[in-house]
Design a protein that fits this description.
The protein is of the alpha/beta class and about 260 residues long. It has two domains: about 200 residues, 2-enoyl-CoA Hydratase, Chain A, domain 1; about 45 residues, Orthogonal Bundle (Lyase 2-enoyl-coa Hydratase, Chain  A, domain 2). It has eleven helices and nine strands. A six-stranded mixed sheet has the order 1-2-3-4-6-9, sandwiched between helices. Helix 1 links the parallel strand 2 and strand 3. Helix 5 packs across helix 6. The relative contact order is 0.11.
């Protein structure tokens, strides 16, 4: 089905690999389309409770495939290309009612950095790095980095990283809040597997509501947030998993959440 990605499913977890290792998983138009389709497949599969995004080979994603872009941009503008390929992908990820964990196995640069930041959590190998490289070729950030970066690291640090394009090591990324956790390279896959298994047995609809609420809270006043929380709490209370959580608490046992 896919040419440039690998889609795997196991025990409630969908794992998506960017699979162009010969070009460090650089993004051409085809892989962007396939990524969006893969996230939609995971979204629509009720058995999928969590999603992992990672890269094949040594890199996570080196960003836009500049060689491919020479052909792909011949009959279009940059803005049309961004609106057609990048924006729908990032919106699909952020609107997906399931957690997306980035298994950051190597460099994430340019649009590859944006792709990592669009995930809900990032677990990085100690060998990984992130860089907003757009400025190095005279471009501004796109694919959501202008939104995600200052919210993660603050305005001053965001300007520094965006305007210099410098590489941020995994250890520095953890210090400034750009990733959740850094682990030795040989422990990355196991660490991520343990994390996503927790999500795979969590109240999935509630996790989705939490993701939605956090997405929207940036644009709301405190009074609006308080009212929004009240409204969404009714949605959470109506789930089967809420009822199971109450039963498990009263019966002094571990809850068995089904994601419903």
């Amino acid at each position: 089905m896919f040419q440039h990605i690998i889609y795997e499913y196991n025990e409630g977890v969908a794992k998506i690999f960017l699979n162009r290792p010969e070009v460090y998983n650089a993004l051409n138009n085809q892989i962007k389309v396939e990524l969006k389709q893969a996230f939609e497949q995971a979204r629509d599969d009720e058995t999928v409770r969590a999603i992992v995004l990672t890269g094949s080979g040594a890199a996570f994603c080196s960003g836009q495939d500049l060689k491919a872009a020479q052909t792909e941009l011949e009959d279009t503008t940059y803005s049309e290309a961004v609106r057609t390929y990048y924006n729908p992908l990032i919106l699909t990820m952020r609107n997906l009612f399931k957690p997306i964990i980035c298994q950051l196995n190597g460099v994430a640069a340019g649009a590859g950095c944006s792709l990592a930041l669009a995930c809900d959590m990032i677990v990085a190998s100690e060998n990984a790095s992130l860089a907003e490289l757009f400025v190095g070729i005279g471009l501004v950030m796109d694919s959501g980095s202008t939104y995600f970066l200052p919210r993660m690291v603050g305005a001053l640090k965001a300007f520094e990283l965006a305007s210099t394009g410098r590489s941020v090591s995994a250890s520095e990324a953890a210090q400034i809040g750009l990733v959740n956790q850094v682990v030795p390279a040989d422990q990355l896959e196991n660490t991520v597997n343990q994390l996503v298994q927790k999500f795979a047995h969590a109240p999935t609809k509630t996790i989705g509501l939490i993701k939605q609420m956090l997405n929207q809270s940036y644009e709301m006043s405190l009074a609006e947030v308080l009212e929004y929380e009240a409204q969404v709490q009714d949605e959470a209370a109506a789930t089967d998993d809420h009822q199971e959580g109450i039963r498990a608490f009263l019966e002094k046992r571990k809850p068995h959440f089904t994601g419903n």
